[in-house]
Amino acid sequence: MPMMFACCAGDDGLEGKAEALPGGLPVLFSSGAGDASVSTRATVPYMENGGRFVCRMYYQGNVGSEDFTNYTEAWLKVDNNYGNSVYRKKDFSKPTTDDNIDGFGFDRESQIFYWQNRKQHIFIAIADYNKLKTNDGTDNGTLNFKNSEEIEGKPMVFDLRRKDGMNSISDQQDIIMAHTEMSPDKATPEGNRVKLLFGHCFAKVQVNLKPLADGGLGNDLRYDRIDKVELLGVADYAYLYNIDVTSSPYNINNVKTEAKKVVANDYLDVDISANPYYTCIETFKAPKDDVTPGYISTHEVITFGQVVAIRVTWHETDSEGNTTVTHVVTKKVEKDEERLLPSGQLHIYNLEMRRGTLAIINAEILPWTDGETYATDGKITEEESGNTEENQQ
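^ that's the sequence the OP posted. Answer follows.
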């Protein structure tokens, strides 16, 4: 049953006159066109029909207090081509009977949000874009707000390391998150519809590689001879934050995603003569027909933190195709603007190789767009969600 609280003058902003909150007023969600007041984008696409996310609603549950002491959690699924979402059970199973579907299309057996008062409410939602239509909130899924210590206020910890069985970037976790603050100042559910703007929490890195003309490589450096491209010094873990309702004062800000610092004592078993930066992640090699024009190979990966160096391993062969020499070439990334990885950005390194050396032709940061920014007017922006130099030292 929804909890109802009396509101006082000033809560609703209606010329100082208190307006009673209609009983049982459900919270509706959608993704939709961008609003210039809350987004730098001119337009924002809808989240894909069938997309799933988990959401928390924080509210001021104590009369006379402005602290966000309470929250509830629900799972939602986009139910049309305009981003409108319906409540479902955490396993996203179909409603058991037609009678279990209410007039909004919600599953009556699922957790449903109701506006608690006229005060500000905070909504935080997360999803895995690479499993947008298949993920769930059961023990077999990752659609939840769990953290490693199961303590409220602690960050959610995401493992960014490449695992066995990952064959492409689509096998990685691509966590997207939204943070919207809103108070119900209208009298109807539709008038108070909450719009979420999701953004990538991590970063995508692309490396393009080609031989330098007259660089002594001749025809030796070819697509099939590039064994791997690795990013060194990147974070193995990232921290995502929701609201800590156990702390005082209460932090209701949209806390930026943070990269776990790479500390030498955490990597005592690493051979620093081979990798003085302790961590690395091997990128995924794009198919030959997807290589960036003008280059011989393209590699990409989802990661976070910073790229301290790039390491390329390639080999030469004899006339029969047998490997004769294996080369390992490392290039340190010197400039901060090329090294640091902001959230929600595509970081491209264009590399040129000559025999024994590797050079960065240029590095650029672009919005991470691949048909995919997932949605709606909200409070999150690149500046608010991005990693910063301060938390990557």
